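Need fresh eyes. Consider my entry:
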Amino acid sequence: MLVLIMAVRAQNEQLNKIKDTAELETMDEILVSAQRFGSSRANTTRQIEVISARQMQLAQQGTMADMLSQTGQVFVQKSQLGGGSPVLRGFESSRVLLVVDGVRMNNATYRAGHLQDIITVDQFMLDRTEVFFGSGSTQFGSDALGGVVYMKTRDPKFRNANFGFAGANANFRYMSAASAAISNVNMELSGKNVAWVFSTTSSDFSNLRMGQQRHFSHWDTFGLRSYYSARIYNRDTMLLNDNPYVQLGSAYTQNDVFSKLSVKSGNLIHTLNMQLSRADAVPRYDRLTDISAGKFRFATWNYVPQNRDFFSYTLLIPKKDGWNHRLILSHQTTSVGRVTRRFGNESELTQLDKVGMTAVNYDFVVNVKPDFQIQGGAEWVVNKVQSTASTKNVKTGEIAASKNTRYADGGANTMSSALFANAIYAIKPHDFILEGGFRLTYYQLNASFSSDNFLKLPYQLAEISSLAPVYNLGLSKKMDWDGLFFKASLAAGFRNPNVDDMTKLFESVPGRKLVIPNKDLKPERTRTLDLGFRLDRKKIHLEMGGYYTRITQLLIDGPGIYNGDDSFDFEGQRTPVFQMGNSALGYVTGGYFAAKIHLIEGLFADVNYNSTFGRYKSAEKALWTPIDHIAPDHGRLGLRWSSEEWQWEAFMLFNGRKIRREYSPSGEDNAQYAPGGETPAWQTYNLRASWQVNKNLAASFAVENVLDLNYRVFSSGISAPGRNLVASVRLSF
């Protein structure tokens, strides 16, 4: 009996050691974002944050945008509850590349302002998410100026058995701040040669309640929703909100479906991947709160629809003669509608933009020698954009076609083709690594305007073509102290002007700034230098470093001329005209510190701190001006205790102050939605617990924003959740 007890104790200690080791990142960890096909962390010279499925499960967030904000390393802006725009190193939206299963999500209409597309990726279907900081243009092409958010979905697993049931899970989550109910069901069937996984998620968010505790000093009533708009007896009316802390006009629902089927055929693996996301009316909350002359500017402002369809076929050819190959054929369709109506106006405008994006990705890996590896491939991407518009009389129901489209009313197409390669030379494995890569991308854009287009532009065709060579160089050198590595990299990046840049009609600042098309644009270019240290030991993982990014041909909007005039009558109001142009030179610089420490058995600490600074000037002798999307200093400090059955976590998320003179004059920082035109510093305190009751049942609990703080994240148009009680249950079969 004593021998049996000692054996069981030894086994439990060994399990704890394995579990504890898995909590910290190691040099042996395989990263899919670093070199597309997958490479050891020891071979990367860049800053990369990994979020596992287990971490996502513990975090218990409502969307992928909220999940990223919990890391303390990714800043997330929100214009509405159904949104979330990641910011990496001062770059946002079309300058941050989203990738799912090796395929780019960014399409030709990704704008330079704030995006919400990441919420169309269901967190329940993800196996892991990797955030690649800094230019990723060599690996992934255009748009990856600030970095890459690489989301890897769950793969079905083959098993040595006849095809049949292999497991299922049911997840239920409730979040009190928005009275949100989220449910997910997933199952897996598998055998020796066939494996299939299916997941469906339903999310229902009610109106979001903000915090009630003073924080903004004399701005402590900022953001209160005192009135809301309603249509009564065919008239728009401003009604008193019974509870001004409830942000009426923020509720929405979303449904997501995921399916992945893998089939073995000899030594080949074929995979069919399907992802569908459907949302009903997603209110643009910030615009619904705009006031002009004592009245709301808008009675209606909704994204309807907000849908994404993703289909792909992947052929994986396992290693043969030192070579690995992967071919991905994919097609994505997005449909985004904008339904707007001015308060007191009976005419409702619907602008619908549909984008079809077809891509072919080929990747290979070859081990020339045990210490010399080459990864490379080719990519071909085509976007087809169709924009339509219609008006509806909300009183009579009459619908009529309109020329007031958001993009070129005659349609627009883009085509991109690229070749790339990256070599990794381990002069001394896990000691001295050299890396170098190159990519060449050819790009075309064609957009056509009808002769009777809404703006009556003096041209009917807008075209550009460009050739963009980029490169990256890097090294990782082990220092004398055990586990300490010095890292350095130099990378060139680019972003091609897309359909949004060249053909958009958009009221950026209500009544004060109307952005109109410009057909004469060129690619943005960057050069980024990264220097840092990484400490990788048994009990500690630490990264710290700094970066400097120089931006040339920066696309910014400036005062323009439309048909000889500097203003345009837009929706009944005389509005100054602006146009995008490659008129600026800029830079972004900053530093980061991230550490994960195993204090004692089961107890872990983590800390993240990020600081960014950016400036641009539009002419050689002009003054340096704050660039937009530069988040205030932000980070996270946490403690977590983990055992076989329990996980407990206490953490603080914090943001520094963003003073008024640091806001960009472009309007993209949304000073009008900040208290007094600036963002005060804030901190939230949060608690979480997860209990593995038995092999079939797990329960999780959380209290977020424990102090019920009233605050608003920088550049956001909606206040953050108040005290949020979260309860989750997971059933496994």
